[in-house]
Amino acid sequence: MKKKIAILPGDGIGREIASGAASALEAVGKRFGHEFELEYANIGGAAIDSDGTPLPDSTLALAKSSDAILLGAVGGPKWDSLPSAERPERGLLAIRKELGLFANLRPIPSFQKLVQSSPLKPEIAGNVNMLIVRELTGGLYFGKPSERRGENNDVVVDTLLYTREEIERIVVKAFEFAKSRDGRLTSVDKANVLESSRMWREIVNEKAADYPEVTVDHMYVDAAAMKLISSPGQFDVIVTENLFGDILSDEASMITGSLGMLPSASLSESGLGLYEPVHGSAPDIAGQNKANPLAMILSTALMLKYSLHLREEGEAIERAVQSVLNDGFCTPDLQMEGSTIVGTDQMIKLVTERI
Amino acid sequence: MKKKIAILPGDGIGREIASGAASALEAVGKRFGHEFELEYANIGGAAIDSDGTPLPDSTLALAKSSDAILLGAVGGPKWDSLPSAERPERGLLAIRKELGLFANLRPIPSFQKLVQSSPLKPEIAGNVNMLIVRELTGGLYFGKPSERRGENNDVVVDTLLYTREEIERIVVKAFEFAKSRDGRLTSVDKANVLESSRMWREIVNEKAADYPEVTVDHMYVDAAAMKLISSPGQFDVIVTENLFGDILSDEASMITGSLGMLPSASLSESGLGLYEPVHGSAPDIAGQNKANPLAMILSTALMLKYSLHLREEGEAIERAVQSVLNDGFCTPDLQMEGSTIVGTDQMIKLVTERI
Ligand SMILES: CC(C)[C@H](C(=O)O)[C@@H](O)C(=O)O
Ligand SMILES: CC(C)[C@H](C(=O)O)[C@@H](O)C(=O)O
């Protein structure tokens, strides 16, 4: 099987970890007899420097013509003083919107070896296996008007806007995942305050009729922020709108004990998907061979499973990562007792060998 | 000194815990020679039952004519099937708006005796002393339009609206608190996405010039949701808009190990304030002498300090609560090793005796 993969390393540690994705794909290709054609393009700060815009047309064109997209991370102090409409993050928001990447998936597992580095007690952090499904192209992030008003510009407005269709497709996606997992779906909203949440809740209840095998409950976002800490083990699949999902998925990412281990997927209706680690570009450690490439490598595994339908291949990567951890290797960001600390390059090599 | 206090017990355990507030005030009155005139009125579900509306005019009039207001909790399954515009929570939202209670204060301390019941590791939970200042009468909670649109009502919109003045007054309030505490203010926003957050950030930076003794930093709401778990000890005062504050303050409330211990204050520009526990109406244990009255009693202490300027009196209550905990007494919701579990009545008596 031959597939074209767009790799957008981005900024900071992006380039270093992207090389982990490339190595993992090479190893998978060899072992399973696939050919992955990798093409690189800039996004974020790197694209501002090269093309004067965080999402150049050429990058977008490459992404559209690929079978899947891997992204490193964007942003850094170099571009922090730019007006917000021109900043690296805009590249991320724009590619999501342009490609219709409406479904952001964030699996949050417990890594037994890392339980000690969670801020939560081990008995709470050790038993987690949830998937957060975040709507990614609607809500307050894109609603218009988003502007200053009034004679002196002394009123400011942002708009939380959803169409029924936008809510339906993400809710259906979440039901499908719940069905293939433990059959439990928690829909998070603020229906005691927001009209958009009331419509969201209605749609969840409507769609529930099509999934009798899935148990649904509704939770207010403030209660969910509590439960994610006090009993994260209770969740299977969580579905929520864009901004709530941004906050809750980052909160939940702390449970595992390391941001450096968490992949994410953003899917469109066509099946085209963008895969990226949850962590940022970490400019403070860029170029020092200290970055943890595992979230990027695990994002590559998700890509194989979700966009290329190569389940076995994806699982081979996941097992390789698990085996490296079990053998006591880790990067400096992970606090594993009695472990051997290795650099980015070495970690990539260790995983690749095991694929 | 003679003061009129409105007590709005509300629903569920509201009535039981309100009696804790009344007893504490009686004890303070005796010891310090003040007269507190307590007047009771309904709000929430109780008011729906008695008056057909969650905030009767008579309740509002009483609140307006009082020196301060104590509220128990609202809501319960009995009223859950009402349309949301008529539900108990509407009483809460309406009284906030009607009285202009724009500043919600949530102190989050560590209780040494309770550190074990936090989901966080003791070394993380044990060192917390933050104050969350949440804007309470603006943003998505009250912005218009908040409606369905389009031919088939298939578009839904909520509006995040702030005026410069609304942002300024809450920011100034937060700076004042930071100045009187450890001098550190963290402003939380989503300025990489929202125009309202960019205006918020500008105003914080403007006001910072008036408070050279306060160190200010800005944090995105998703990062704040992480830091509240991974290093809650880093925060002194946090200031943020209404919805972010709702989510983050509930998340932070888990740190202490018990919702049953947390008071809150909601202040207006005139100084009139409403004081209530952070926990809800807990209908499942209502009337069983199991509710923890300490959050209500500590809310009464906040009232004495913030609205009646009786600092010593408020501290006398806080010391009494601390002493009861130190002597090993607790209600069933608290998990304290080797403690004596007592009911609501007995807990109220224990605290009152010590005032
Ligand atoms: C960079 C930012 C705009 C982005 C978001 O809020 O969506 C990030 O926090 C994320 O979650 O991918
Ligand atoms: C009941 C609800 C409307 C309310 C809010 O969101 O403000 C509650 O969660 C709170 O924080 O007091």
From TrEMBL, chains A, B:
Question: Needs which cofactor?
Answer: Mg(2+); Mn(2+)
Q: Where is the Isopropylmalate dehydrogenase-like domain?
A: 4-351
Q: Kindly list the positions annotated as binding substrate.
A: 96, 106, 134, 222
The record ties this protein, via Gene3D superfamilies, to:
Isopropylmalate Dehydrogenase
**Which cell locations does it reside in?**
Cytoplasm
Matching entries from InterPro entries are given as: IsoCit/isopropylmalate_DH_CS (IPR019818), IsoPropMal-DH-like_dom (IPR024084), Isopropylmalate_DH (IPR004429)
Give, as in the UniProt entry, the pathway in which the protein acts.
Amino-acid biosynthesis; L-leucine biosynthesis; L-leucine from 3-methyl-2-oxobutanoate: step 3/4
| Single biological process term from Gene Ontology | L-leucine biosynthetic process
UniProt: NAD(+) binding residues: 76-89, 280-292
Q: Does the keyword NAD apply?
A: yes
Swiss-Prot/TrEMBL catalytic activity: (2R,3S)-3-isopropylmalate + NAD(+) = 4-methyl-2-oxopentanoate + CO2 + NADH
Sorted UniProt keywords: Amino-acid biosynthesis, Branched-chain amino acid biosynthesis, Cytoplasm, Leucine biosynthesis, Magnesium, Manganese, Metal-binding, NAD, Oxidoreductase
PROSITE patterns per record: IDH_IMDH
Give binding positions for Mg(2+): 222, 246, 250
What GO MF annotations does this protein's record show?
3-isopropylmalate dehydrogenase activity; magnesium ion binding; NAD binding
Q: How is the cofactor bound?
A: Binds 1 Mg(2+) or Mn(2+) ion per subunit.
Main location (coarse class): cytoplasm
HAMAP family from the xrefs?
LeuB_type1
Assembly and binders? Homodimer.
Q: What family name appears in the similarity comment? A: Belongs to the isocitrate and isopropylmalate dehydrogenases family. LeuB type 1 subfamily.
Outline what the protein does. Catalyzes the oxidation of 3-carboxy-2-hydroxy-4-methylpentanoate (3-isopropylmalate) to 3-carboxy-4-methyl-2-oxopentanoate. The product decarboxylates to 4-methyl-2 oxopentanoate.
- Protein name as catalogued: 3-isopropylmalate dehydrogenase
- What is the primary gene name for this protein? leuB
